[in-house]
Amino acid sequence: MKLDAKIPEGPLAGKWSKHKFNLKLVNPANKRKYTVIVVGTGLAGASAAASLAELGYNVKAFCYQDSPRRAHSIAAQGGINAAKNYQNDGDSVHRLFYDTIKGGDYRAREGNVYRLAEVSVNIIDQCVAQGVPFAREYGGLLDNRSFGGSQVSRTFYARGQTGQQLLLGAYSALNRQINLGKVKMFTRHEMMDVVKIEGEAKGIVTRDLITGEIETHAAHAVLLCTGGYGNVFYLSTNAMGCNVTAAWKAHKRGAYFANPCFTQIHPTCIPVTGDHQSKLTLMSESLRNDGRVWAPKTVELAQKLRKGELKVTDLKEDDRDYFLERKYPAFGNLVPRDVASRNAKEIVDEGRGVGASGIAVYLDFAEAIGRLGEDAVRARYGNLFDMYQQITDENPYKQPMRIYPAVHYTMGGLWVDYNLQTTVKGLYCLGEANFSDHGANRLGASALMQGLADGYFVIPYTLGDYLATIGPDAVDIKHIAFEDAKKSVVDRVNHLLSLKGTKTVNEYHRELGHIMWEYCGMARTEEGLIKAKGMIRELREDFWKNAMVSGTNNEFNQSLENAGRVADFLELGELMVDDALNRKESCGGHFRLESQTEEGEALRDDDNYAYAAAWEYKGDNQAEVLHKEELVFENVKLSQRSYK
Amino acid sequence: MNLTLKVWRQKNADTKGKFVTYQADHVSPDMSFLEMLDVVNEDLTKKGDDPIHFDHDCREGICGACSLHINGRPHGPKQGITTCQLHMRTFKDNDTVVIEPWRAEAFPVIKDLAVDRRAFDRIQAAGGFVSVNTGGVPDANAIPIPKVIADEAFNSATCIGCGACVAACKNASAMLFVSAKVSQLALLPQGQPERYRRVQAMVAQMDAEGFGSCTNTGACEAECPKEISITNIARMNRDYLTAKLIKQEEA
Ligand SMILES: Cc1cc2nc3c(=O)[nH]c(=O)nc-3n(C[C@H](O)[C@H](O)[C@H](O)COP(=O)(O)OP(=O)(O)OC[C@H]3O[C@@H](n4cnc5c(N)ncnc54)[C@H](O)[C@@H]3O)c2cc1C
Ligand code: SF4
Ligand code: FES
Q: What pTM was estimated for this model as a whole?
């Protein structure tokens, strides 16, 4: 199948308006004859479900948590970008577009990214109208900050919990539609498969997580808004339940998976303390606005610090290497995430890491406290400092924090066209689950923006075009396709439950995580990736022989839930490795050691890799087939990213 | 350190539960409370026993999923944090730790330590929103809001919907939660048009769900991980009375 991104012709700034005009509309009286399934009610899903219901469609929405308010979007701390230019500091739609394309290391589509920047301004208006309490200035207007390496202040925020406040806004809009009977909400339901009839998505199969009942649901279209797959690394900043299952099942039913190896490793997380560790905690990137990142100048000093022979606060100024400021005088501590992360890894690899494990660098506020006073620092970062102290038992007002990069976000995801439709007709993908807007590296505060752009302002238009084309005839839930899909889900569940081996599912997950982190993490080589591929295959085979899954289907069974998710990660992991092997260039978060500049920065190969890699599933244990969507740049000049 | 755990085990909503004692050995002080339970669960799984079920997701104190009653206190002995933020360094070697689910009629047990809190969603659906559709809203800065008011609304908005306030209350009242939700919108200009209708609808739903009444003991405030203040309750009561007495027609 030839990939057609359906990007409208014409000048960049006019593409979206022109496209909206060309899209078919569904007659208002007909809208109530359509049913749309929305899987996932995080920012992308809740905003889509509410907006579609407002238009008059019937919506069935699903999530695995006990409430839509708990979707992982809740955890976002830092903020959301929008090209409002309220600060009069030179921001514009074009600048946000440019920063995002460049930040993504020129591996995203111009058309999509421009649209994202364009609708960003509407998102803020919408959220404020819902009552989202963004930070304000004394004059009563909205406050902004500069975030994640941006040179303008375009980030809107709500203390350290922007994600929760935005999600509560979208959740309230969703609730309003639930109350009006336009959305039927299914909580504690996990999507287990997509149902296709004559090549088009017409429904899903779910498992009720309380009763174990396997159910089928029919609809005119299915929207997957199921978040990212960072948990393939076992340890990440994602919530424990984040998974790839919905996207992976869709992939197996014909949706191509794009750029799976593009993973974002966030530089400022609290380091691992031991084997019991179940997840990693992110410290907002905003900390880099005032905190200075450093490591001891020599390996000897680092060793003394690790052994406790030297106290960090006693280390002389001359013995500290503020490596980001040294190497990147223009951006300093505010270089993009991939650059900051890689540099921390280099320090640790050189043996200059700190903390008992030696796997950390310092983030120091002494200078900021001296300059601004402890109270001002507390006002800005108090909740983050408290969180840090809670977890580490160390006081960051008195000594530098220890930080280390952790897996945070996945830029890859289901391939979608400009309409957010996957390669399966009627199957759409929104939010972190799709691959579309962030290229090889996502800028801070732009995931919330994308999720809400997709849900509030893109899908309500583009979905209508498809629905108008297929017409409102009801989908027949008695169709054999539903029965077949259900049977395959039941078989799989039974297969998982039959596993009574000797190793827990968690042990497999942890091992997979080690392999991914070691060989498909911050630095990748051909040799390592080939090795990893073999290791993942072995691990997967072993899983299906020796894993142990407790309980039965007809009950609340977290062991079974977890087993299903890990089984899917074991398949995805191999595809990520294949994708990383295929891409013999470095770009953004994908760093192939074989492809770097003399200064050790990511070296792109635009002649050979300026494409999105979309993978087609061909059957169990078969090699997937690569399809290339060439990326066309008409409005920006591809350049080597430089933050010097 | 080594601990003795007394954990509430209950197969499902229809069966009776009981305490079962487990030994948790070699617990590291750096573990979180939930990581300690993970380790216990790994052992149970290996022995062929059913692991202890509990709700959790973000494990950083914001999603509101985790919900354990630890030694008689919702979210355990420390103030201002959730169970997932509780670290084992809070406990001592040889301590006995009693772990129960939230206890409230409106929160029936699903299994072990997991309860059904959908009543909270239904209260929110009854009126916890501003009726605006997507699109067609004014520019964000067309609605200036004094910083003090915005900050006050924010304080109410930090509620994570965990239900600890209900679990802490001897009457299993949901007033702290509902009043936080009502207050956020009652304080903001966007919430004014539906202010009185909202409070009536949400309170009616709260009553219908079977939560108890508020007798002002303040236990909710003391146990709330987000330190939501009971002044929210006073504010909601005021609005509720106003709605009943004066604004009936408008409401
Ligand atoms: C700690 C942290 C901090 C962050 N901070 C920021 C920030 O400051 N700014 C920013 O822009 N971005 C930030 N991000 C990224 C951003 O939060 C996410 O990318 C974004 O919120 C994802 O939204 P979503 O709607 O796509 O998915 P999610 O919010 O993850 O929602 C996924 C939904 O899908 C459901 N689901 C998943 N699988 C299934 C299934 N099989 N069946 C049924 N339902 C399913 C879930 O129940 C949930 O409702 C942060 C991320 C993390 C981890
Ligand atoms: S008011 Fe506090 S205790 Fe009650 S649900 Fe909200 S955060 Fe939890
Ligand atoms: S698990 Fe999310 S608040 Fe505890």
A: 0.97
